[in-house]
Amino acid sequence: MGSPSSASQLREDPSKPLLHPTSSTRRYRTTLFCSCLVLLALVAVAIASTASSRSASAPTARPPSKLSRPVVIIVSADGFRFGYQFKTQTPNIRQLIAAGTEAEEGLIPVFPSLTFPNHYSIATGLYPPYHGIINNYFTDPVTGDWFTTASHEPHWWLGEPLWQTAAAQGVAAATYFWPGSEVIKGSWTCPPKFCPKYNGSVPFEQRVDTLLGFFDLPSGEIPALMMLYLEQPDLQGHELGPDDPEVTKAVARVDQMIGRLIAGLERRGIFEDVTMIMLGDHGMVGVCRKKTIFLDDLAPWVQIPESWVQSYSPLLAIRPPAEVSSSEVVAKMNEGLSSGKVENGEYLRMFLKEDLPERLHYSASSRIPPIIGMLGEAYTVVQNRTSEFSECGGAHGYDNALFSMRTIFIAHGPRFERGRKIPSFKNVEIYNLVTTILNLNGAPNNGSASFPNSVLLPST
């Protein structure tokens, strides 16, 4: 027989491995294993070094150079729609943006996107049902009393605004025409020196200069919180619409006031020490007569007497008599609006307040009428065709999810990173932001406790 093949020789003992490792193979594997360990160690060192380097270079709060404690100034420009900052040259606002932190796509108002509910949400961190100011004008269903923008009785104003929080902890605060600040409640007495009564004829320059003058007081008397309200560009936006040249002029004027404030702080050598927050309460959208819904057009389905209507536009609020079924009124109104027989009817939808989208946070108060109508953007509601209303203008108060209702948020100060852009957020977060900066114990609110740490630089 012939000699066995190589394959046969390799398989002569099936119990042994097919290939036998040689001593050179073992040395190779040992060397490779050691090399891998060394490489892994080097990678670990590199990662640790990078993390340490990043940690060491991460920005932290800038220490004050002159002021002995934190000071926050909040400036509200009423109706400053997000995007207005691009309508004209706004060098001072741009300076704040470049040297501070900006909500890149604007600040989100609470619903309804109206002046008094939003200014008080900024001040308290609460949604309107919880702070009580559910509209600019409304009635108390129990007493029948009307709330107006001149109502300063404390029973209307719930929650704890920033100035009250500060006063309760022995910290001086100053307000200049901020809605709600004239209300005496808790530890807040609205001291004349730091809380003038509203007078819309007071020039913006005088308001800014008054705040700057507070920094000339002895160190221990300087208010740690200052809140300033400016009526523009809201007035021009309502009268002429957001795209009118007069709005552009108003934006430029607001920018001049920001520049005046910055210059005054710089002259005193404290601009970098002071936290300055510029914001608005809501946006603005153009409205015209052709986008109108007339309640009397619903007469074939249901009669809506004028006496039932608490407000028309942009928030339609209806309170029928107790003997009338609100759910039936809503059903009949929606039937008529969706019939195709009511002019612009498809742009209004009626809700029982408890059926409103949860994101609106607009049901948990008896002050809110039981029936709420949500209008499409730029549409209005009036009682009938004889009602008086302008041909065109501007409005706000719509769904706060609409981009046109957004406003601005820009912050500069020791705990705000330079040139940083942050996502949009709701204005109920501002209360916690300010109390954190001022080292105050805040009252319970609807803001997130974690929000300040996501925005502020860590303190040194």
Can you describe this structure?
The protein is an alpha/beta fold and 460 residues long. The protein folds into two domains: 72-285 and 401-455, Alkaline Phosphatase, subunit A, CATH 3.40.720; 290-389, Gyrase A, domain 2. 30% of the residues lie in helices and 15% in strands. The chain contains twelve helices and 19 strands. It has helices spanning 6-10, 23-57, 91-99, 115-124, 128-131, 162-168, 204-214, 234-240, 245-267, 326-337, 430-437, 451-455; strands at 72-77, 101-103, 107-108, 138-139, 146-147, 173-176, 225-230, 275-279, 285-288, 292-294, 309-311, 315-318, 348-352, 371-375, 380-382, 392-395, 409-412, 420-422, 425-426. The strands form six sheets. It has a seven-stranded mixed β-sheet, sandwiched between helices. Strand 4 and strand 5 form a beta hairpin. The longest helix is centred in the first third of the chain and has 35 residues, at 23-57. The protein is globular and about 70 Å long. Residues 1-25 and 49-56 have low confidence and may be disordered. Residues 1-22 are annotated as: Disordered. It comes from Elaeis guineensis var. tenera (Oil palm). Pfam families: Phosphodiest. GO terms for molecular function: hydrolase activity. This is venom phosphodiesterase 2.
